[in-house]
Predict the structure.
Amino acid sequence: MRLSLILVILRREVIDLLRDRRTLIGMVVLPLVAFPLMGIGVSKFIEETGKKNEAQATTVGVKSLEMTPDLQAAIARSGMRPIVEKDLRTAIEQKRVAAGIEQNGQQIRLLVDATRAASNLVADRLRTALAELKEERIRESLAKLSVPAAVLQPFRVERVNVASERKMGGFLLGTMLGYIVILLMFSGGMHPAVDMTAGERERKTMEALLASPASRAEIVLAKILATVVALYATVLLTLGSFFISMKSSAMMNDAKFAALLGNISLDWGTLALLLLTMFPVALMAGALMIAIASFARSFKEAQSYLTPLLLLVILPALLGGLPGTELSPALSLIPIFNASQLLKAVLQGEFTMANFLTTFFANVAYAGICFYFALRTFKNENVMFRS
Amino acid sequence: MIEVASLSRSFADKKRGVVHAVNDVSFTVAPGEIFGLLGPNGAGKSTCLRMLATLLAPTAGRASVNGFDVQRSPARVRESIGFLSGDMGLYQRMTPRELMLFFGRLSRVDEATLKRRSGELIERLAMSGFADSRFDKLSSGMRQKAAIARALIHNPPVLIFDEPTATLDVVTAGIVEGFILEAKREGRCILYSTHIMEEAEYLCDRIAVINEGRLRTTGTMEELRAVTGKQRLREVFLDLLERQVA
């Protein structure tokens, strides 16, 4: 193979991609706006939902205002306004009150619509107030009997989270990062792959290229590399946008979120490892997409072949990011899943070199297999010259 | 310059079984000669030319272009030819100048020569007004000029043209014909496939008639007239086809 010819074709393909508005949208615009938009969206959603819930969580339904002193005290302590309703269930369903409370002898019952955040919030506040009141009554009784209050607490239980903040951040972000990066990468490379193969055949420019001194292997490799350029540009922009968003986007307005995200390492090492993880995946995706799209007679047909591929990719990308799954040497061999897992592990700062190398070289091997199939397609006269 | 000996190409078809698209075809084309390949649609012309351009592999026989065997040295063959087909597309987001440079670089023409040659072709084909405009903004005549320039940018000794004027208007077809005659004067070996009889009669030194994959006859216009007793090529052509049926 002659590198100079591969570079000539690659250059032309890349220039062509940059002149194509549709490719630019998938390759540049989407990755750049995905994370900031998501950040702003999530932050706004959390803020608005919180405000709405707080505004609704002000009332509690009661059967009568004549209540036992304990119940009156609990309601007062929770800060809720009691509203008399004959049918508490209906009142909650119709959202006239957020939750309800009723007493039957010693039994106090909280009525709640568990599907509504405001209802849960009221119930939680009432339960806390009731629990405090209950403890106070017990302490008073114990004091009358001259029994020390310490009997109530023979030992303390404390739950300590040993995961570092970085790991917690990686845990949360890793769940979505791999999925988003992989999905955006595949969708960013779809149009270029189709355009360079089926599109070129549809526009009848392929024959002139095949009749040039470049060999089929040189042509297919250049096209794969051009697709990889598009795919990797998407990855670069997505990860770049992700890192910047983490530092400065509206996500940081949320204190809890900021606490989780703030300690994620934004050093060059992490970014380099994330990019390195995605490189063989981009190679594999480029070769696979060119191989598949080459079969198609037309642009539309190629798109219909590649759309199921996108759906096939979603599942392992999603599973790889799910909590509870951890990378093992065997799992490192599953394409897409391994990359999604490794992205999460890198963010958490917890990956072994063995897993990293297995994942890296497994994906390089898959890229080689896909290249072989793409080359076979290009050498197949029945495929290349069918009409 | 082009030597074709018992060249055949067959393929399997689900409905028709084994189809012999080109069957035992032999001919030679010398430098400075325009050799016309005439035949009705589906006769095997394009398959034959595609084999000579190394796009399709022969199933039997052999062929060489500029001294290079199409199967053993396909890359050298492709370096020696300028291949142009009537329905070939052009990259919409490129300009004619960029197209020439691209194909010139693929033929490993050095940059200085490439610049000089592209400038010459732009001048000769009167392309200076649109050499830097994208193809999606050009007329069919302008595009065909650029396609010719692409085929000639690496100064190939052999030209293989597959119905290059099939979709063109009379004016643009005239430009293409003029250029082919000029290429002949430069000593290039030209294999020209067409089903436009007047064009073949006007351009070709020798004509071969191909039908159903087989070469029916080869000769100069005078030789074909002598064989058939007809004057115009259209009549000669139809006569040869009728004889075959009979």
